[in-house]
Amino acid sequence: MLRIKLNELIKSWDNGLVQTEVWRWDGIGWNECIPQQEEDFIRADEELFVTIPAVAGLYRVDYSRKPLEPLFVLPEVEESALRAELLHPAPFKLKEGTLWGYINNEGKTAIEPRYDYAEEFQANGLAIVQRKDKSGLIDSTGRERVKPLYSFIAPFSEGRAVVSDAKGYTLIDEKGKEVTSARADYLNSLQEGRALFSKQSTAGNSRYGYWDAQGKEVLPAVYEDAGDFMDGVALVKIKDGEYALIDPQGAVLHTYNYPFVGYPGDGLLAFQAEENGKYGYLRTDGTIAIQPQFTAALPFSGGRAVVNTASDYGNAYGLIDKQGKQIIPATYYEVLQLGEDRVALGTPLIASQPYRGSRYAIADAVTGRILSSHPLLGVNNYQNGLASVYDAQNTYFIDKSGKKAAQPPVIPGSGTLSFSGSLIRADVDQRISYYDRRGKQVWRHNGVIPLRPPYSVLEKKYKPNRDYLVYYPVVEGIAITDVSREVNDKLRSLSLAEGAGTGAQDFSYTGDFAVSFFRKVLLVLELSGYRFPFGAAHGMPTRIYTHINLKNGRFYRLGDLFKPGSKYVQKLSDIVGKQIANDPRYDYVFPDTYKGITADQPFYVDEEALYLYFAPYEIAPYAAGFPTFRIPYAEIMGLISTEGEFWQSFH
What we know:
Organism: Paenibacillus graminis
Domain DUF3298: 560-633
InterPro entries: DUF3298, PdaC/RsiV-like_sf, WG_beta_rep
Distance between the termini: 45 Å
Oligomer: single chain
Protein name: DUF3298 domain-containing protein
CATH topology of the largest domain: Lipocalin
Pfam families: DUF3298 (PF11738), WG_beta_rep (PF14903)
């Protein structure tokens, strides 16, 4: 990787705002943009530079003054419409870990961070929050309307919210009270006075029916499949080869005798005339509107539908109108309806590796005309004439013309922008920030985690390309310079924030960190990562806990906690083995796979217990994550070296 400093080239410029672009010649033109490392951090001291990968080729560096963003203010919204949105969820990195609270429109903390996760306030003035894997509801004063008791709470719809607990799913009202004691195996949100539910039949199959707003079973679970009500009707499957359109009282309006019938949209339903045959569209009265001719057919929306004509599970998507006429030819890898008469047309970034992602152009859904061919790597739906997008460099809004909108902000990195009351929320490169409508940042995810003077942890970012992103820790306050450098060099290396991602790679990688525990001079950091090989079914997570003595910079291992010569490996192995055998929480462990722990078993500590953990697949299924076993100190005090440096570092 080659670095080119720009400091000398721009030192005479009045303002320090610079925009840079690095382009690579691909044999046809300067078409490949090389993303640049972002160094926008508190107390970050890197010089201004661009990087060129260590791959032979022709590269061009463009640099210029960065113009001030033009002001663009959306029409004012009445205060009453924003009342439930004046507070905005925000994550804070603290020595206790990442906790969520709420900020006001000025970026000031309005509700102290104390939740594991927090969602936007809804129109009824309530917000869903989570603590210790349980969900509850709070109002704008921070008062708990529903204590975090449920395993899940859905957003309110028609005055009701779906909740679930160990007994199943039910509905609550806006006071947090369950409207019925009944439970369903699954329950959708209320739509047009009906909530789709399912329960298992005596044969073990799921059957579907509908509740009303009071939790009464108005339509029993007799359908093999069913959808939500929309425009006064719902599609249900009576049995194989028989579908029906019903009204809210269950009266059958129309019956369709075909192997497959899809959910209605704009008065048309996709269908197959033959088993595993091609798709066409029916009118609601059962007559054929468009003859079967497609290998895939999505529901109509806005008078148009996305269809696929490729065989053998290929991708050749286009857009048709209600007469079946092609608006956009079926030649694209993806076609996404964005609303407001706009679509995104996607083609693979690498033709031989379509799973690497697509580049999108914006087109008019009415005429099919391409409005903007600037390659976008991510697109979202239009709302009030604006859509959030990102390209190889920035995240920003586009307008109905498909061009960059005047509405700021423009943020380096990949993500989305969304309106949150009078603010704009930016979720970019896995970090959240808020801006006012003029593009001024009013709040950002904090880059420094205070511990106690003189110690703190600084967040740094490593992003050599769009598929490699790591946030890594820098510990500040260690008195001895050489020790401080050694500690932080090791943390950067363990975080995989150096050397990687600068050449050709066949995977994506994201890494992050959190303070797991801090007491006296012991700092425990959790370094997490996720490596996803392109084209794989799933990626592989990693987790490392570092136990650092901030006085001398030493990294402790498991054995450092115990007396020399103690048989801690055997004792801990026995304790974990008993937990697996006797605790039903560990029923997921593969039989006969646990053979004991190792001398350097992955672990972490807190003030009350030692925790031992295993990697995915090591002793349990991938879905089990990192099987973790808690061992209170009281159970192993005879083995612990209470006069040893490790124990004394946090006692």
